[in-house]
Amino acid sequence: MRFRGLQIIISSAAALLLCSYILYETKTEIPGSPAGPEAAKDKVLMQVLVQSLKNSHYDPKDINDEFSSGAFDLYMKRLDFGKRFLLQDDVEKLLEYRTQIDDQIKNSDFTFFDESYDLINKRVDEAKAYYEAALSKPFDFSEQEEIELDEEKRMFAENKKELKDLWRRNLKYQALVRIHQMEKDQETAAAESDTATILSFDEMEEKVREQLTKSHNRWFERLEKLNREDRKDIYINSIMNVYGPHTVYFPPKDKENFDIGMSGQLEGIGAQLQEKDGYIKVSRIVPGSPSYRQGELEKGDLIIKVGQGDEPPVDVVDMRLDDAVQLIRGKKGTEVRLTVKKVNGSINTIPIIRDIVVLEETYAKSAVITNENDAKVGYIRLPKFYADFSRRGGRSASVDVKRELEKLKAENVEGIVLDLRNNSGGSLRDAIDMTGYFIDKGPVVQVKSRYQRPEVMKDNDAAVVYDGPLVVMTNQFSASASEILAAAIQDYDRGIIMGAKSSFGKGTVQRFIELDRRLTPAYKQYEPLGAVKVTTQKFYRINGGATQLRGVTPDIVMPDQYNYLDMGESENEFVMEWDEIDPAAYEKWNHAYKKSSIVEQSESRIASNPTMMKVSKNSERLKEQQDDTRVSLNLEVFRQRQETLDKQAEEFEELFEPLESLEPTNLAIDYERISQDSVKMDINDKWLEDLKKDAFLNEATLVISDILAMEN
Hints:
Elements: E1 2-3, E2 6-7, E3 9-11, H1 37-56, H2 65-79, H3 88-95, H4 101-106, H5 111-134, E4 146-148, H6 160-192, H7 201-224, H8 228-240, E5 248-250, H9 252-263, E6 265-268, E7 271-276, E8 279-285, H10 290-294, E9 302-308, E10 314-315, H11 321-328, E11 335-341, E12 347-353, E13 355-358, E14 365-370, E15 376-381, H12 397-410, E16 415-419, E17 425-427, H13 428-436, E18 442-449, E19 455-459, E20 470-474, H14 481-491, E21 496-499, E22 508-514, E23 531-540, E24 556-557, H15 595-608, H16 610-627, E25 630-632, H17 635-650, E26 663-665, H18 668-674, H19 678-692, H20 695-711
């Protein structure tokens, strides 16, 4: 959307706002003599960040001792969240800086960060000896001792002896968990086969210690690959997050990944990769991608070298995953040559021409669902409000949803279920356009900037794409743009909102500021600096209330496994408060049914539905487990606890069974396309299987049936 020259995107923590516009230049003065190019760049970066937030943030902060304390506390949590490296003396030493960060920010001074960086590296190096010593001999499981699993409830160790003991107890707990699982697996194997290999307890204990040694070796290898830039990004974002949880600094590589997630497209080869034992391993080939079409690269292959066309290849063994990915990605039409070790041990070189890779799981898709009342319901799943601002004519959520609506109307569906569960948000323009498909023209959301009166943002198209029965599904992870659409549908009384007790509660808007555009020519040598995502606006429902913190309360509350757990925007630190403004002028939708009757019928079904009752009970169980954070490390006591937990878990193992009365099918036009690709068919079949087990979706279709019965 073009709004005052900006491209606006809103969403939850991972995907919020993108803008492309020319920023004015601010000359940056560098105090003192820098220790080198890296130190000088750090100073430029800090000054440009602070100036950008001062000029652009919706609620800029005074950089004072209170601000400093907030940044310090956030950083210390992130520096050593598990309290497995630093000692209490280290923390007290760093505490001297708690009210000095504001002064260091103003002077572009990184003394506190540099000291903490040296300290954490030293302690990480020392911790190798702790896990190696603990895993070098059998654990004594007869001792009566406990471990606190909630890191926030633990104190930092007073000395190295205490810290070493914490490592021992933590590893002992991990060993107990693995041994318990191995015992269960052996019981199952023995019941299924007389020839199953059965290990003694001592043999299992030894095997588990070997596994833990390997996993910790790999973990510490990754820790050693964390360089100063990685740690500095954590420090800078601890400062940025005092402005709010959605004000975030993005180094250049992270910004690229954000854009990929937002557009659902990237230029590359279409292979998902993971780091394993020092190798870059192929974990998945994206259907239809260059790798898929070329045909030689396979899941399980280990990439050992990466070459660009005819250039000499670069060895990527033991290279950080993100660095290897940067070598493999590239512009459409260019060639990358991968030297891979196949599963059979052979070494092959595979040339692949890079192309646009479409991440289909990002995009909207639809199905036709028939329920127990033989109602024919259209179903649209929208994972996010995506938009591709980098290319003209790029895909957008609103265009795709409109296409799905037209296809479903052609199938003569009797109602529509729009599924926004787990949709973290995205493009504001797409949320407004999409709302307009279901209403006459009118206001959709109100947006308030820093020094301006709220602006009513409208759907100006009088055309209604779909005017029939409508249900919108949400949950705790439906955020931002999802909440705008759901709130507007609810305020217009256009449809029924169904979901968990509340949506996420993110009612702020962000935009990206490309930091390089803030630099004067004298400082262009420090590019690239990356970008900062800044909270610039707050949005409000057309009834005047904010969705910030409170989210959208559904018309019909369905049980959810997270209903008793603390989640959402309110769990973040330094969040904006809820407030309200004057409502916009709008007229509610005229329909033949009585909402209160629809809600009452649904609530009655939910209350008596065995699956729904089990979901609610499971949510209570998860809450109890979350609060029970002290665990015995005595073998017998641990076994008794796990047996109790296992029995409780067994009750909920088959929580969702296929519903005979729920029949999801592809649209004919979609099936024709999908059926030409066996991989896509497998993905599609799994999706339809999951839909058939979705008790919440089933209830949504029954609400459509209730509406139809009342309208007829």
